[in-house]
DNA sequence: AAGGTGTACAACCGCCGATGT
DNA sequence: AACATCGGCGGTTGTACACCT
C-alpha cells in the first residue's frame, strides 16, 4: 500500500490518538446519513478510509478476531462483517508484508501455482506475510502474462456483447489477449501444460515433488530447512496438496 | 493540456463447508 | 433433519494512477 496507509506502522500511540477523533468523525457521518436517508442501516462500500482502518485495527487488537458481524456494529463502522474481516486479514493484521515481491517469492508463486493451480490460500501459506489476495493479484497482473494459456474463466462467457461501457470492453479485450481465449480445464489441461512455455522447469517440479514426498513420509516432523515452510496452515493442508498432485497425475512420476 | 488506454491492486460477490440451534 | 449464521475461498469488478497519443 502506498503512503496513505503506511501510517499504521508508526506506532499504536498514534493509532489510539487518532481513533477517538476518527470514531467521532464517523459517528457524525452516520448521524448525518441517518438524518438524510430515513435511517435504513446501510453498509458502506468502497475503499477504506484511514480512520476506518484505525477503528478496526484498534477494535480487533482490543477484542480479538472473530465475530465479524458484531465488529462492525460495536465498533461503529458501517461495514459488513465480511468487509471488516477481509480488511483485517489482508491489510491490518500484524506482520503483513507490503511492497513488491522478491525474486524468491515470485519463484515460489510460480512453482506452487504449477503444482496447485489457483489455490491462492495454499500458495500464500508458503509466503510469510503475504495474503491470498495479494498472491492472486500478483499472479493475474504479473505472472499470468508468462503463462498465456492459463485462463481467467468467465470473462469470456458473455458473447452477446453486453458490455455496456468501453472500459469493460477494453478490459475484456485485454484479458482475452492474455489468455488466448482457450479453455483449459484443470484436468484436461494436463497435456497442454506440458506444452506450455512456462517459467517453471521440470527440474523444479521434480524437486518440489520430492519435497512434498518428504512430508508425506514424515508429516509430523516438518523440516524447517526444506523448500516449503508451512506457517499457519493446518496439517490437513499437506494432504490437500498431495491430493492436488494426484489429480494432476504427478504422483505416478515420483 | 486533454482524453483515451493500460496497469496494479483493493474490494466485493457468490458459493460452499463447518458449526450452532 | 432443517435452517441460519459465520468464515473462508476464488473469481470478478472497481478505481486510482501512469502512460500514451
Write up what this structure looks like.
With 254 residues, the protein is mainly alpha-helical. The protein has two domains: 6-92, Arc Repressor Mutant, subunit A; 103-149 and 184-253, no CATH class. The protein has eleven helices and no strands. Mean pLDDT is 59; it is low at 1-18, 29-40, 149-206 and 208-254. The structure holds a DNA duplex (21 and 21 nucleotides).
The largest pleated sheet is described as: none
Strand content: under 5%
Oligomer: single chain
Average pLDDT value?
Answer: 59
Radius of gyration: 22 Å
Which stretches are poorly predicted, pLDDT < 50 over at least 5 residues?
A: 1-18, 29-40, 149-206, 208-254
Number of domains: 2
Q: Which H/E pattern describes the elements?
A: HHHHHHHHHHH
Give the class from helix and strand content and strand pairing. Answer: mainly alpha
- Helical residues, percent: 55-70%
Tell me how many strands there are: 0
Shape, per Cα inertia axes: elongated
Number of helices: 11
**How widely separated are the two ends?**
42 Å
Subcellular location: Nucleus
Pfam family, one: Myb_DNA-binding
GO molecular function, one term: transcription cis-regulatory region binding
Main location: nucleus
Amino acid at each position: 500500500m502506498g503512503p496513505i496507509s503506511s501510517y499504521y506502522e508508526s506506532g499504536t500511540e498514534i493509532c489510539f490518538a487518532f481513533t477517538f477523533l476518527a470514531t467521532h468523525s464517523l459517528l457524525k457521518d452516520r448521524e448525518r446519513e441517518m438524518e438524510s436517508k430515513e435511517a435504513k442501516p446501510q453498509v458502506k462500500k468502497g475503499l477504506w478510509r484511514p480512520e476506518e482502518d484505525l477503528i478496526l485495527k484498534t477494535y480487533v487488537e482490543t477484542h480479538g478476531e472473530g465475530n465479524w458481524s458484531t465488529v462492525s456494529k460495536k465498533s461503529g463502522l458501517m461495514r459488513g462483517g465480511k468487509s471488516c474481516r477481509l480488511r483485517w486479514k489482508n491489510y491490518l493484521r500484524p506482520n503483513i508484508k507490503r511492497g513488491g515481491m522478491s525474486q524468491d517469492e515470485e519463484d515460489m508463486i510460480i512453482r506452487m501455482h504449477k503444482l496447485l493451480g489457483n489455490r491462492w490460500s495454499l500458495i500464500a501459506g508458503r509466503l510469510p506475510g503475504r495474503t491470498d489476495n495479494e498472491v492472486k493479484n500478483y499472479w493475474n497482473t504479473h505472472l499470468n502474462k508468462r503463462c498465456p494459456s492459463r485462463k481467467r474463466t468467465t470473462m469470456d462467457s458473455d458473447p452477446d456483447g453486453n458490455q455496456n461501457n468501453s472500459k469493460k470492453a477494453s478490459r475484456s479485450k485485454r484479458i482475452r489477449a492474455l489468455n488466448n481465449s482457450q479453455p483449459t480445464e484443470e484436468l484436461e489441461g494436463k497435456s497442454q501444460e506440458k506444452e506450455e512455455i512456462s517459467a517453471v522447469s521440470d527440474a523444479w517440479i521434480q524437486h518440489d515433488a520430492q519435497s512434498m514426498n518428504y512430508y508425506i513420509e514424515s508429516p509430523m516432523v516438518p523440516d524447517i530447512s526444506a523448500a516449503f515452510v508451512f506457517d499457519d496452515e493446518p496439517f490437513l493442508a499437506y494432504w490437500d496438496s498431495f491430493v492436488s498432485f494426484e489429480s494432476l497425475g504427478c504422483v505416478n512420476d515420483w
